[in-house]
Amino acid sequence: MAIGAVSLAVAKACAMLLNKPLYLNIALLKHNQEQPMLFMPLLMVSLISCGKSSSGKLNLMKEVICIPHPELTTKQGVEMLMEIQKHINKIIEMPSPPKAETKKGHDGSKRGQQQITGKMSHLGCLTINCDTIEQPLLLIQEICANLGLELGTNLHLAINCAGHELMDYSKGKYEVIMGTYKNAAEMVDLYVDLINKYPSIIALIDPFRKEDSEQWDSIYHALGSRCYIIAGTASKSISKLLEQGNISIPKSNGLIIKHTNQTTMSDLVEITNLIDSKKHITVFGSTEGESSDDSLVDLAVGLGVRFIKLGGLSRGERVTKYNRLLTIEEELVQNGTLDTSSSSCDARIGGQEQETMTLVKV
Q1: Is the pLDDT score of 342 beyond 60?
Q2: Helices (DSSP H) in 167-212: which residue ranges?
Q3: Helices 22-30, 3-17: crossing angle, 10 deg rounding
Q4: Which of 146, 183, 261, 273 does the annotation list as catalytic?
Q5: Which of 28, 89, 142, 332 has the smallest set of CB atoms within 10 Å of its CB?
Q6: Beta strands 281-285 and 254-257: pairing type?
């Protein structure tokens, strides 16, 4: 169970002895000791959570994630998303104005409608109560409009659906909204309608539990050219993926990988090479119950992954990692080893220079 920690410790010790940063040591390992040009992974930043842990009726969106445009630097992307986060916090904290009494109710609201409230989650973002699928998306859309930003241009969205958490096994259906159940086939239609209505969503993470392989196939064929279908929890462990050499079950065009206690540095190099060879994208994610160790950021940069998913911009253990990401970008720019061409956008992903900032613990 300690092999992952031992392997990381060896990699860190090697980097120290060679007087090189950890990310460069990992990159040399991946590229057979040839000095590579490095690029920054694109940010996947969790802004709000409306999953089963929230007090609202909506269960579907465990994380609503923002992805800054690839042409922005990491620093510019973080600053933009911090500004959006500030406005979300203001809206959540702002008391609702008094409303005249109507026949519908003393507050004039629709039945079952409640003021949006929120609390900080372990994901580093606000958990808010929403009753409909559209509500969190419209919230972010409105904030972006107020800031002069356009969804689908300046930034895009990803949804962590956490399909395995939605399943009501007594009914054999997904509980998308409290009291609203859909079978696997109906969920495909729901996701297609969602992407049609909100084309700025360019990634769906775990839209189904891993057992619904037929629906993974269906959604991949329906949306795979317009939206990344990413397997996280639904994917097999790295050791099993390497053993079988097959990453196409469930059907997806991207995988979330994590450094766990069972995963060596060589495993990470091998799995990213395998994913790259299949023309899939790699998302490097953080683990549950993580510490303030920022090594995973070095691993993501050294392995050359497409995206990095660290959670929200709050909580010390996550802020530390974002600060490390900014530091690495500065080092690569100063050393002239930052490859900006590698972050060019593809068909799914459609600034002014700002002052340097340091994130602070919230």
Answers
A1: no
A2: 184-197
A3: 100
A4: 261
A5: 142
A6: parallel
Q: Which helix H or strand E contains 285, and what residues bound it?
A: strand 281-285
261 is catalytic: yes
Give the whole-angstrom CA distance, residue 58 versus residue 127. Answer: 11
What whole-number distance in Å separates Cα of residue 70 and Cα of residue 344?
6
Query: What dihedral do alpha carbons 178, 183, 187, 193 form, nearest 10°?
Result: -90
**Per-residue model confidence (pLDDT) at position 203:** 97
> Are the beta carbons of 126 and 119 closer than 8 angstroms?
yes
- Residues 268, 257 contacting (CB under 8 angstroms): yes
DSSP strand pairing (155-160 vs 126-128): unpaired
Q: Which amino acid is at 309?
A: K
More confident residue, 293 or 356: 293
Q: Which residues of 316-334 are buried (b: 16+ CB within 10 A; e: fewer)?
A: ebbbbbbbbbbebbebbee
CA distance 18 to 31: 17
209-232 mean pLDDT = 95
Q: How many CB atoms lie within 10 A of CB 159?
A: 27
* pLDDT, position 266: 96
Amino acid at 154: N
Q: How far apart are CA 295 and CA 327, in angstroms?
A: 13
Q: What is the pLDDT of residues 105-140, one digit of tens each?
A: 333 333 444 556 567 778 888 899 999 999 999 999
Q: Using CA atoms, how far apart are residues 93 and 86, in angstroms rounded to an integer?
A: 11
Least confident interval from 45-54, 113-122, 169-178: 113-122
- How far are the Cα atoms of 9, 165, 187 from residue 159, in angstroms, in the given order? 34, 14, 14
Which residue intervals of the chain are DSSP H helices? 3-17, 22-30, 74-93, 134-146, 163-166, 184-197, 213-223, 238-244, 265-277, 295-303, 316-335
Per-residue pLDDT tens over the stretch 192-206: 999 999 999 999 999
